[in-house]
Structures
1.
Amino acid sequence: MIFGRRAERGQKDSLKRAPSRLQAVSDPNPRESPRRTPLPDHLPRETVIDPPESIICPNCQGALHVIGEEVSEQLEYVPGRFKVIRHIRPKHICRRCVRITTTPAFRRPFMRALPGPGLLAHVLVSK
């Protein structure tokens, strides 16, 4: 509309619209990114803790200390029911060289996907 034929008809219309465009650009409340809804609480949960390969720092051979954990959930289908598998990967830090290490993430059939291999196989066979 700004650079087309309609823009040449009159400038009054374009002057009225200019402030509204500026307000849209400088919005003080940015939109939040969409978040995935958590899996329902009524589903049974199985916890898998992935231990680190070693408790010795690969950099300086110092001791690693637990500072937290990363938790991810995966929806799995066991014949006749669903369950949620929680993968917990502890985060460790070396106090000498201040290096943070975690266990590598488990392999999924699709990156960042919730369904597990059993659920995907069930869907493919059911179709």
Note: The helical segments are 6-9, 11-25, 117-126.
2.
Amino acid sequence: MVKRNVFIIGTGITGFGENYEISAGKLASKALTRAIENTKITKESVQSTFIGSLVSGSNSQPSIGANCLRESHIKTPHVRIEAGNASGAAAFHQAYLGILSGVFDCIAVVGVEKLSDFVNAGIVERILSSTIDYQWEFEMGATLTSLYAILTKAHMKEFQTTKEQLAAVPVKNHKNGVNNPNAQFRKEISIERFLNAKRIAEPIGKFDPATYCDGSASVILASEKFILQNKDISSKVPILGSSYASDSLALHHRKLLTELNASKTAAATAYKMADIKPVDINVAEVHDSYPIGEILAIEDLGFFKKGEGGKAVEEGLTEQNGKVSINTSGGLKARGDPFGATGIAQIIEIVEQMRREAGKRQVDSVNYGLTQNVMGTGALTYVNILGEEEVKK
């Protein structure tokens, strides 16, 4: 059993959306500076910085780490970690291990992406080809959207999942996003609009996918020793479990198309580390880049039986203060999806729920929260479990 001696002591986030006038380095610096200010520690206390990003830091945006730290006036070693759409969660996990090992006592984690530049250039799909099988999928004309359409059709065929149930996912998440001041879209949308939208890869419609955008999010991790030495730290949310698992890149190499095995495996390890069961989770942020993504997640994470995810969403069991509150932030769909920042933003939402700082999004009772961040069509998944300070096992 892993000793629970790693805590989140500070958070910082920018608004998600289109930020043409600001560089990726400045976006990252904003989130990092806010996170440090939130902790009430000095910049000099940070021993290392882990930066998660798929695009920023490569190609036309080099030296993202150096630019971020220069803008923040912080001098620490830094490393950029890339794991596709799960880059933020990957950086978080590596920082967690860094403190767990005893090598570090205080690490800053930053997730950042500035995708507006690449959307305009029309090359986002080529960038995302690194998250799927390049030879057997991308070069054959497949995209993330078409591959998720295959996953959607498989679930619909085997479990009679309906388009209405699928549409209920983004409808719920847009409703939640209204109350998130950092969300890209803060407007409710009707289920009829989703159902009547033009199909872009049957059965996926124009309004189903999450939108690529710009944004940054940051958290500060610390050891118990560091917290005892810094009396001004007023909040410490324990990381009870942090795990990841992988699967085949290509869909045709997987045993089933109706589950993401990497999510199931990573979740099982995280639950064991936290010594809890799925039924104990009160709130979760899951990867809803497409509606089927959330339905698969709530099944694979153990919240609902396989095949019953669509029905659960349709019946309101995943709404705020439902059986389990899913994507209270608005999820990727309403909050926006700046790949490298997404996994960190998920964690920040759970931290705010634990601190009772989520405003109108606040869930009434929160003891345990979970995040699930996925790369591509599920070839890599990170799962994290956080708990209240008062929770004792």
Note: DSSP finds 14 helices and twelve strands in the chain.
3.
Amino acid sequence: MRFFLWLAAATLPLAGQHTLYTCTAMTREYVVGAKLLPSGIFSHVETGKWKHEGYNHPFVFGLDYDPKDPSTIYIAAGNGLIRASEHGQHWKILTGSDVTELRDVALDPNAPGAIYFAHCAGIRYSPDSGATWREIGGSLHRKFTEAIRVDRRRAGVLLAGNEEGIFRTEDGGAHWKLAGASGFQIMHMEQSPHDPCHWLAVTEQGGVFASRDCGVSFESSGGAIGVGHNLYDIAFDPSKTGRIAVAGWGIGVAVSSDGGKSWQLRNVGLPRPDAWSVAFDPDHPGRLYASIQEEALYISDDAGANWKIAGLAGSQIPRMKFIPAAKPK
């Protein structure tokens, strides 16, 4: 009997393994010249309650964490790359005035200290935790880069999404090759937590593109979802293979249970079909979050079948991320 009780407990997710962080701008009813509303990085303290971390900042667009120390996060912001230690309590800008309008950031788990960020004029790389930087997107024809992701299998392999499609490098950005989605603006990309060779990317007007060969090539999903709309985010459910969510303008939230072959709109209970971002909770199977334009962050405990408000009313959240709890020092 004790064995079966232990087995049942072992299969349940452990509460508190991850914390949800959001890049948040409070924009509803804001008037230029008025006092800046609380914006920037927020962490989810408990159901419906949020903590504003660090400084008031209306232009934060992406974040990632140090794999060796999850209490240190890196923020792609309008005024540069920011390192926020102690879960966002202490901020330091790591870049100079020569680079602005950062769009995304990714750290390489296989190369300690390696940081990549995408910005309005290319891609930059630091091998030493932000002490020095160099531009690695110079060979790309179009420089505006919205998305950057590191392949967790091997150091120096990364994918970039810009105005002309998805590009891949195997040597840390020295050489780039077009991988797919030619001619489409890429908005976000993700690597499956179940199969590292499965990648998905969302686009403006082109729908979803998928790779099954480790990001070497991407093919269109065939118009299954999002063609003619702007898709802004995509997320794999780490608790269930094949379950994926997308966020977009005019489609709201859509969920696939078969790896992207078919999709179902999951907007019942949402105030409008305009979504910025989505994220599955790795600690609670089926729990899904969605940011709805200037309404609030919404939560569903059944993969989008039913929704309720989770807080951050009046916000738009271009990106959110679950970050593992830091180990005690």
Note: The mean pLDDT is 92.
